[in-house]
Amino acid sequence: MSTFIDFFLHLDTHLSNIMSEYQKTTYLILCLIIFCETGLVATPFLPGDSLLFAAGMLTASTGILNIWLLIPLLIFSAILGDNVNYFVGRFFGEKVFEINFLKRFIKREYLDKTHAFYEKHGGKTIIMARFVPIVRTFAPFAAGLGKMNYSKYITFCLIGGILWVSLLSLAGYYLGNIPVIKNNFEKVILGIIFISVVPILISYLKGKKK
Question: Which of 18, 44, 59, 130 could make an S-S bridge to 160, C-beta 3.0–4.6 Å?
Fold first, then answer.
């Protein structure tokens, strides 16, 4: 657990090492992580927001990757992941909860909360969920499980994917190497995580109050 936390808090160091060792192959590595984080209901714990910010920051400082190539690739990976998740929910639905291995990672309460979030905010949930950890992973699955109209779903999916990847990657690219941010990367990551989970905390507190 401590190793996992260390990876998150020092994501810039670990990602920098990956870039130095694998060079252009880092494009593929980043795309796979984003695809799995958004497309596989068993891996909601993978870094998303923080990874995009760190990738943008290191792209600017190392010059190993090209930000204008990286962003489209990551957008494609995120949208592809969402669509895989949507169709798994649509065609397999409840059967996922019958698989013992997945029960360790997928809690029905996560799906219930995501579904409630979806019911409250409608189609725009697909966009909003992009910026909320865990909900980001389960929203497409819930949309598929709920048989959301695909033409409507893909519209919100495209908008959400483009906004999520572009905003966070460009924030890292243009702001990540400002000394006060670069020298306090751990605090920045914690701040990003905190801001990301605020909607979940608010929803939880409201639920407890009721």
Answer: 130
Q: Confirm if 139 and 88 have CB atoms less than 8 A apart.
A: no
Lowest-pLDDT choice from 50-54, 69-73, 79-83, 112-116 = 112-116
pLDDT in tens, 10-21: 788 889 999 999
Residue 196 domain boundaries: 2-209
The pTM score is 0.84
In 3D space, the residue among 144, 139, 110 whose CA is nearest the CA of residue 126 turns out to be 139
- For helices 135-145 and 108-121, the axis angle rounded to 10 degrees is 80
* DSSP secondary structure of the chain: -HHHHHHHHTHHHHHHHHHHHHGGGHHHHHHHHHHHHHH-TT-TTS--HHHHHHHHHHHHHH-SS-HHHHHHHHHHHHHHHHHHHHHHHHHTGGGGGG-HHHHTT--HHHHHHHHHHHHHHGGGHHHHHTTSTTHHHHHHHHHHHTT--HHHHHHHHHHHHHHHHHHHHHHHHHHTTSHHHHTTHHHHHHHHHHHHHHHHHHHHHHHHH-
Domain count for the chain: 1
Nearest to 7 by CA among 60, 62, 50: 50
Do residues 57 and 121 make contact, with C-beta atoms less than 8 angstroms apart?
no
Residue 5 has pLDDT above 70, yes or no: no
